[in-house]
Amino acid sequence: MSESGKKFCVEYAKRGAAACKKCKVKIDKGLLRIAKIVPNPFTDGGSEMKEWYHTDCMFESFQRARATTKKIEDAEDLEGFQELEQDDRKKILTKIHQLQESLTMKAKTKTTAKKLPAKRDSEEPIGANVNSLHISEAKRKKLDQNRADIQVSRTDESSKDNSFKEFRKLCAKLYDESAYTAKTAIVRNFFEKGTCGKGFEGDTYLWVKFLLPSVNKRIYNLQSKQLCKLFARVFGGPIYDSMVEDLEQGDVAETVAKFHEEAIKCPPTPKANLSLQQVDRYLERLSRLTREDDQAALLDEIAHSCTVNDLKMIVRLIKHDIRINAGPKHILDALNPAAYEAFHASLDLEEVVRQSLAEGFGSGVVTVGIKICTPVKPMLAEPCRSVDFAFKRFPNGMFAEVKYDGERVQLHKRGNEFFFYSRSLKPVVAHKVNHFREYIPKAFPYCDSLIIDGEILLVNTKTDEILPFGTLGVHKKAQFREAAVCFFVFDCMFYNGKSLLSEPLSKRREILTAYMSVVKHHVQLSEMEGIRSPARLKANIEDAINKGLEGLVLKDPASPYEPGKRHWLKVKKDYLQGGTMADSADLVVLGAYFGTGNKGGIMSIFLMGCYNPSTKRWVTVTKVHGGHDDATLQRLQKELQMKKISKNPNLVPSWMDVKQQLVPDFVTVDPLTSQVWEITGAEFSKAEAHTANGISIRFPRVSRIRNDKSAEDATSLEELIRLFNLSKRQVLKLDDEVGNHITRSNDELLPGETRDGNKFNTSTPEKNKKNARDRFDSAGNESCDKSPKKGKKESISPAKILTSSPSRKANSRTVKNNTEKKITFKKDESSLFTVDSSACTGEDGEKAEGVNRARRRLPECDLPRLFTGIVVETLPTDFRYYQDLSRYFIAYDGKISKKGVTHEIGTKKGTVCIDWIWESIKRRTKVDIDSYIN
């Protein structure tokens, strides 16, 4: 697939050369076209190609495609969608909507579902907006009355529609069906007709809750091995070791069912009699138990009333995975097309089901707002790999905010009650947030109800330095006596009874600025800077990375808060310059772990390490599970020579230095003959769980298998320490090609922006705060015009380092530095790169004057001249990063020429491995060549 992982892309035809795959007619230049990204049958390297279609032809082909064929189900399935013109985006959204409607009707026909009642002409259009206002007041009152009368829960447990056995049957049908639209049709058909076909009489909310066990999770604190331990007590006999061994297949539910069938002490009941309500009560009781004896007693009671299949499904519910491959959208669409969007914004499943029943299947407006104590899905960011991409997404300017490297927290306040939720919407552990109960009332003195979004970090109270990620733990935090946990607030979704989701970001920030008082080192408002030019964004990115921060988050000032949507952009070091800024090391496979789910029963997680010459032992660096496709994983099961030790610390070989919590299921037979893999990550980090001097790799992935290297050639501990130190000193200097368009004049301001350095004031004078509050209270949608005051005390924030450097103004010919000294680009042969003239000549040595003229127009720059004096005849075109490699080699003063060759690149003995050039480029320093000579 493409770099973004999407299977489709959309763009305007560039040359008009490609023909439509369906109608065979060429797609004219500038015409909208859609590509399906498919494997390239003409190569063996797993590369991909694009099959282009006219927009209409693409969607026509979907109409006749099989149910299992991948289709465009959402705009997010299309790479490049956000770069299209508004009218073309609307056109594609209409096509997607029409396709979904058509496929839904086909699926209903196949499952003989009852035809939905036709929509009356007098009905209002369906809306999924949580703040929908487009229905009449009379109808709204009637609608509210209907909703009040609807009973979501029905208490007739004896009804066949409340049978747990019927729930299992429905799950089996959903498992067997691969098409999502057909899954939705199956659920809708059941909720309309019921088990007997005469109408559904079950508890709709309970059914939906069971079909979506990962929503509103009950917490059981029962991992797979603990479940085996408890059920071994329930079933009787010395079966625990056998259960754990069977667990290696990756499915604890299957393991429990297998041993339940053979149990003598607790045999399965011959007939299924459980109701959904009984199972719900069992699970609720189990979620409240913490003592092992109590848990075992309840599981014994449950097992005595279950068939084998009943108990298997109950274990799946405990693990929050019932294996139907259907999420909230597919289940809730069965109730109402508007239900999912309402749920996505509110996460109030019961209210969404209630309103959907009041409206009837397939019609009506579901209006569910956010409320205190129900966490809101956080708005997210997608990777941004260049300055140009950022300005394509936000052409009218953007807000740039420090990407805090802490823990995302959502705070809900209701009177004197406080609720803290993590990024995954779970309650945050008390020791991290309890002290905020003292400081939040001071930070928001005028607030009764509140929902804010932010990040918590540990801050040194003397130096104002932010401490590293991972220091919020109980033991780690105790090591920093002069530190406090600080809440950096960057958004507000709800204030004093009013939802702010639909308000633009600039307005939400104004409200925070007006109503929030900074409590130093405890509650602070993140700083934002208005960005209007590529040069300024480039400077901010360089400053952030070079100061050791994780990166920047870029936001549209006019955007609403969209729960769960990735409509912000995040800029990190490993995203930039084609990934060359990412940290990497060549590590040896030391061990492996069994996978779970569809990777159950095979080695899919690998323990990577390096050699420590001083102790003559192999030390661990990181665990990695990303980067291999399914075919490679299957091949590795045979290629890797492993010995099974089942995480037994007593069986760890003497050559391996590994901590007990990381002991693997398998260890390599001989590390000297094991494979070497290039492991790439966001950055080198500190992790005390690993034995390589505590050095690890954050967000690791396998870039490639190094068949050209042996374990002796892999990165050693000494080299790893050097790479770690070098990474921390590495200076980011982005390419100069960032574009020269200025999206706004210098006199224009972004919404909410002031003229005091383009950033929000995080410490507004009290008089201005009061004026802003008065305006908001009297007219909720007015802008707060906050003028900077002299002598204003700055709030302390890590973002200060971004705004401390002077603003850089640039044009195509001159730049000015802080001392107003004028620098003029020289028109000589100094250039961004060097090109050997012999490589740019035609027949008989005729020079390509166009290249030379272009070279002379380029400005002087301070790119590192790593390869000065180095001449190679050619670079291998089959290298994975060939385009970036050749560009950077020339940019860093290398030459490609047949004359005066100094280094021969290749794989033969005596030649230089191409990795020497690539590693030098990534580290921006010439690495020792001796270890790269074949």
Report on the structure:
With 934 residues, the protein is α+β, with helices and mostly antiparallel strands. It has 6 domains: 8-110, Zinc finger, PARP-type (first zn-finger domain of poly(adp-ribose) polymerase-1, 2-Layer Sandwich), CATH 3.30.1740.10; 137-214 and 327-359, no CATH class; 224-318, DNA ligase i, domain 1 (Orthogonal Bundle), CATH 1.10.3260.10; 380-578 and 743-801, 2-Layer Sandwich (D-amino Acid Aminotransferase, Chain A, domain 1), CATH 3.30.470; 583-710, Beta Barrel (OB fold (Dihydrolipoamide Acetyltransferase, E2P)), CATH 2.40.50.140; 837-932, BRCT domain (Rossmann fold, 3-Layer(aba) Sandwich), CATH 3.40.50.10190. 31% of the residues lie in helices and 17% in strands. The chain contains 28 helices and 29 strands. Helix 3 (137-149) packs across helix 15, helix 7 (224-235) runs parallel beside helix 9 (252-261) and helix 20 (505-515) packs across helix 24. The longest helix has 25 residues, at 86-110. Residues 111-137, 139-143, 145-153, 737-747, 755-765 and 779-860 have low confidence and may be disordered.
How confident is the prediction overall: mean pLDDT? 78
What's the total helix number? Answer: 28
Low-confidence stretches: 111-137, 139-143, 145-153, 737-747, 755-765, 779-860
Approximately how much helix is present in the residues?
25-40%
EC number: 6.5.1.1
Protein name: DNA ligase
Domain PARP-type: 8-100
Domain ATP-dependent DNA ligase family profile: 478-612
